[in-house]
Amino acid sequence: MVILFIVATPLWTSAADKPRSAKKETLRGHVIADVASAGFGSGLGPLWTSFIFDVEQSDGRMMPVRISFAFYKNEQLPPDSFWDYRILYELRAKRDARCDTTVAAISYEENVDAAEGKKLPPSFILQFAKNAPSSSLRPDIALPCYVLWYFDYKRLDSQRVR
């Protein structure tokens, strides 16, 4: 029985696991792009998807970050109306440096010919949100990562980008 527990323990470890001292941060901003990857995850625990979020800084500048979005059922994914840059959102997320990346690293997905096993050209998988400024995402931009659970965001209707 102990051996089974030791073998199964890594299955429950996920990107959401953080030291107990990590606190949720409030991020206000706008959705830039969905990372439309084919994989949501597998095994025990939550499913995952990612998107790029433009965080409003105290000095008025915008800073893009990666959001790793955790959910259990497809019904918990953001609705279609979520993918509009004009809408202001507030996210309560935990910083997780283990999933930091760059725009270039999450913009493409590798393809392989299943029959021959040969590498094919990669597919561009970023889907820009409606009204999003695509020019703000240079490939070399570093994206700090935050983990967001499906229940921890809200739309702030009173403020929209014109």
The beta-strand count equals: 11
Supply Rg. Answer: 17 Å
- Main structural class: mainly beta
Average pLDDT, all residues: 84
Alpha plus pi helix count = 2
What pattern of helices and strands is seen along the backbone?
Answer: HEEEEEHEEEEEE
Beta fraction of the residues?
35-45%
Q: What percentage of residues falls in helices of 4 or more residues?
A: under 10%
How many domains make up the coordinates? 1
Low-confidence stretches: 1-19
Ends apart, CA distance between termini:
60 Å
| Strand order, largest beta sheet | 1-2-3-10-4
Shape: globular
Largest sheet: 5 strands, mixed, barrel
Structural overview:
The protein is mainly β. It has one domain. The protein contains 2 helices and 11 strands, in the order αβββββαββββββ. A 5-stranded mixed barrel has the order 1-2-3-10-4. It is globular and about 50 Å long. Mean pLDDT is 84; it is low at 1-19.
